[in-house]
Write a structure and sequence with these properties.
The complex is a heterodimer of chains A (about 210) and B (about 625). Chain A is about 40% helix and about 20% strand. With about 210 residues, chain A is an alpha/beta fold. Chain A has a single domain, classed as Ribonuclease H-like superfamily/Ribonuclease H (Nucleotidyltransferase, domain 5), CATH 3.30.420. Chain A is globular and about 45 Å long. The two termini of chain A are about 15 Å apart. Chain B folds into 4 domains: about 130 residues, Jelly Rolls; about 120 residues, CBS-domain (Roll); about 190 residues; about 140 residues, Nucleotidyltransferases  domain 2 (Four Helix Bundle (Hemerythrin (Met), subunit A)), CATH 1.20.120. Chain B has 27 helices and 21 strands. In chain B, strand 19 and strand 20 form a beta hairpin. The longest helix of chain B is centred in the middle third of the chain and has 25 residues. The chains are: A alpha/beta (about 210), B alpha+beta (about 625).
């Protein structure tokens, strides 16, 4: 049961899903701790008016990575590749900041990605806050908890969530594929909620 | 994975798109362009009306999910799944999207905006071709309309220059002459209350006025040719020429469907269009003085047709031409027989069956013809027609049209008879649907008038129209049709046959064209359509409502596509049995279309069984 706020409170939060722009972001990292680990690559995909715009998709590699350690096992990106086609993280974070301005942020497990992003945005003096932060993992978790009490660890991975909506399996594992995969998952979530025109971004934030 | 550029397309999407036609046949840059310009939506029954707005034009490509494409009448046109496209008809034609989607399983769909679709169309010919040909699954039809047709296929309306010059029958001859002078024409249409009642030509002014010393003040009605032959604006130039040559006339009034005169088409108009082609041969056949001359002219047919097949875009038109030639041969031989043997003892007419009736004759087709005579015939008069049948059939064989192995020729007593006798034969096939009767029905229900007393043919048709109520017969026909399966398997694989030389092939005639012919015949019989040509039957079926417009278009295109392919391989791969192809030699696009055609035929077969043979299967 959701509590309805008085109408005048809602005004600032009434952005409609169909009218908004969302930036779906995925990071490849060297580990899980923002203080000791680094960003290897950032990819983002734009959702505008309920549609994913592949034209706006970006995939950036960070050439400043100091310590890849064991992480290439997960993301498959080697040092050579980073040096050859990477950009400086400062530039990446700044262009990301420009993209994010006046948009909402979408991630699968936002606390992790947003933690890293915040750290570097502070470091490089990029002061942008997204209108909303939407987490597809939380949406899915909430949905599942409504029908079951116990959740297994692997039920909330991106692939497991997608398979519940009949979304195709992606073979390639990189930031861009995962950003698109997350964006598609969000479309599926939204589509199963209600008529699109009545959905507000607020409904997607848990 | 390499990321040599800052904007690299999503590899998974690229992988998927690269596997789809037409991208699989195009340079990788084409799929790259697609992926970098596409949008992605997730369509459910809840949101489809919001995401799929009819005025937004996109090329839709299904990534996951299952959707039914439904037309305005609420009928499912086709089921779409992974890798299927939709929306291209409106991209190509600029019209609004007419069909809508019904979501069976929600899923992802890629959208390519109109301007990006247009870009790919301009850049890649194969891309353009793929969608033009796939347009509304109408396989080749849109492709057809873009090309100019050979002149015998042109509509009369396209050849007719000036608008109708008309005069009342009560007008004076001198007024008619002045009218013709002012309009600069050699003939004038005489109309009474807006309807065609006669024509006057330059020649009439000479022969019936000057030479007959008639006063120029006499009425037009006195010199006009009353009830002249005429042609409709939608007929083909070929039909006009055939009519002129057959009746030795040079002017044909052109009427619209409401029989309002629109103008005149003259033999000069037509001759201006033609250079060297077999149509002239028909004229020579109608003027031949002996059966030897007829046979000599017939010998020119194969050579002339070979030259023709390169110039006529729609190769299936050859079927019409060959049937026209065979009609001419039959008619002229009959006239020659009458010159020798004297006038016939009673009224009669020639009819043809099978491929000649359907106007899809090939050079390998054999004779299928018969004679109908008046019920009033006396027994001893029958001998005249036995001789006529033997004379014409015999000489047709000499002309290169083989004898029918099944004996369906007027030289056979079984193929001669009075109207009542013919009706009795038809009745037997309809009432006792044995396999042999089914076979006969397939041949004899495709029939066409060739020569003689048309009223006899009309009374035969009138008698046959009462057979329409025989449900059992239709059920048997439908069951019979369903026993002949299209050569594709469960997973849309071709099922090939082998001959003794181990050639692997598909029989396009028996397993394709013939099934369409059978289906269309059944529906045409049900609706009482007295036409034999499959395309004409389909056109007429549009008014009957037993088949949806979409189904009719599909059958038309399947038939045309298969016929075209059949003629093409007959010329290109002579080592295979006639009408057969090896699908491995086709282009990927042709294979794709062929599968689509077979698939549509299969659906039509199933629908037909369901409609007519419910309960009996």
């Amino acid at each position: 049961m959701k509590w309805r706020l008085p109408r005048f409170f809602q005004r600032t939060e009434s952005a409609l899903w169909l009218n908004s722009e969302l930036l779906v972001v995925d990071l490849e990292l060297t580990g899980l701790d923002p203080n000791s680990h680094e960003i290897v690559s950032i990819a983002w995909v734009l959702i505008k008016n309920g549609r994913i715009e592949l034209e706006q998709a970006q995939h950036k590699l960070n050439c400043d990575v100091k310590q890849l350690a064991q992480s290439p096992v997960y993301h498959g990106i080697g040092e050579h590749q980073l040096v050859q086609s990477g950009e400086h993280l400062e530039r990446i974070i700044k262009s990301f900041g420009e993209e994010l301005a006046s948009k909402s942020l979408v991630c699968h497990n936002a606390s992790l990605d947003w933690g890293f992003l915040q750290k570097y945005m502070n470091k490089f003096g990029v002061a942008v806050t997204p209108a909303h932060i939407i987490d597809t993992l939380k949406i899915e978790k909430n949905k599942l908890l409504r029908s079951q009490t116990y959740l297994a660890q692997d039920q909330l991975t991106l692939a497991a969530c997608r398979s519940r909506y009949g979304l195709p399996t992606y073979q390639n594992h990189n930031a861009l594929s995962d950003a698109l995969a997350t964006a598609e998952l969000l479309l599926a979530h939204v589509s199963h909620l209600d008529r699109q025109e009545s959905i507000k971004l607020r409904n997607l934030v848990y | 994975m390499t990321h040599s550029q800052s904007v690299s397309p999503v590899v998974d999407v690229l992988d998927f798109v690269t596997k789809q036609l037409p991208f699989s046949e195009l340079p990788p840059a084409c799929a790259h362009f697609y992926v970098n310009h596409a949008k992605v939506v997730y369509i459910t029954s809840l949101n489809q009306s919001e995401l799929l707005v009819p005025t937004d034009r996109y090329l839709y490509l299904i990534r996951s999910g299952v959707f039914d494409l439904v037309n305005t009448a609420g009928e499912v046109v086709t089921r779409l799944g992974e890798g299927d496209y939709f929306g291209y008809p409106s991209l190509l034609t600029g019209e609004e999207i007419k069909n809508h989607l019904e979501v069976q399983t929600s899923g992802l769909v890629f959208l390519l905006p109109q301007q990006d679709f247009d870009f790919l169309r301009r850049e890649y010919l194969k891309f353009e071709q793929h969608f033009v040909r796939a347009h509304k699954k109408r396989l080749l039809s849109s492709h057809y309309q873009e090309r100019g047709r050979a002149w015998p296929e042109h509509k009369i309306s396209a050849l007719m220059g000036k608008s109708a010059v008309t005069i009342e029958p009560s007008a004076r001859i001198v007024d008619a002459a002045k009218l013709m002078q002012n309009a600069g024409v050699s003939s004038v249409i005489v109309t009474e209350k807006g309807e065609l009642s006669g024509i006057i030509t330059d020649r009439d002014l000479r022969n019936r006025v000057l030479a007959a010393e008639l006063a120029p003040s006499a009425s037009v009605a006195q010199i006009m040719t009353p009830n002249p032959k005429f042609i409709f604006e939608n007929n083909r130039a070929f039909s006009a020429l055939h009519l002129m040559l057959k009746h030795n006339i040079h002017h044909l009034p052109v009427l619209n469907e409401e029989r309002v005169p629109l103008g005149m088409v003259t033999s000069t108009d037509l001759l201006r269009q033609q250079k060297h082609d077999p149509v002239q041969l028909i004229g020579q056949i109608y003027k031949a003085h002996s059966h030897q001359e007829v046979i000599r002219l017939a010998m020119e047919i194969p050579a002339l047709l070979r030259g023709f097949s390169n110039t006529v875009e729609d190769i299936s038109f050859i079927g019409t031409l060959l049937s026209g030639l065979t009609d001419a041969l039959t008619s002229r031989l009959t006239e020659l027989f009458i010159q020798q043997a004297g006038e016939p003892p009673c009224s009669f007419c020639w009819i043809c069956f099978g491929s000649q009736a359907r106007e899809e004759q090939t050079l390998h087709s054999d004779q299928d013809n018969g004679l109908v005579f008046s019920n009033a015939i006396l027994d001893h008069q029958r001998d005249y027609f036995a001789r006529l049948g033997a004379y014409v059939s015999g000489h047709l064989i000499s002309c290169g049209i083989k004898a029918c192995p099944g004996g369906i020729m007027a030289s056979n007593a079984q193929c001669r008879g009075t109207v009542d006798e013919w009706l009795l034969r038809y009745e037997q096939w309809v009432h006792t649907p044995t396999p042999q009767a089914m076979l006969n029905s397939k041949i004899f229900f495709d029939r066409r008038f060739i020569y003689g007393d048309q009223a006899l043919y009309q009374s035969l048709n009138a008698g046959l129209s009462t057979l329409r109520q025989q449900e059992l017969f239709f059920a048997a026909m439908a069951t019979d049709i369903s026993t002949n399966s299209v050569p594709i398997g469960l997973f849309m694989q071709f099922k090939l046959e082998r001959d003794k030389h181990k050639h692997r092939y598909l029989d396009l005639k028996i397993r394709g064209v013939a099934i369409v012919n059978d289906l269309v015949r059944l529906y045409a019989l049900k609706c009482g359509i007295n036409k034999a040509n499959t395309q004409m039957r389909l056109a007429a079926l549009k008014e009957c409502g037993v088949l949806s417009k979409e189904d009719i278009y599909n059958l038309q295109d399947c038939w045309r596509f298969l016929t075209q392919l059949r003629f093409k391989v007959q010329i290109e791969a002579p080592e295979l049995p006639p009408n057969c192809i090896n699908p491995e030699l086709l282009s990927s696009l042709e294979r794709h279309q062929l599968k689509e055609a077979f698939h549509l035929i299969k659906q039509a077969q199933q629908a037909c069984v369901f409609k007519f043979a419910r309960g009996s299967l």
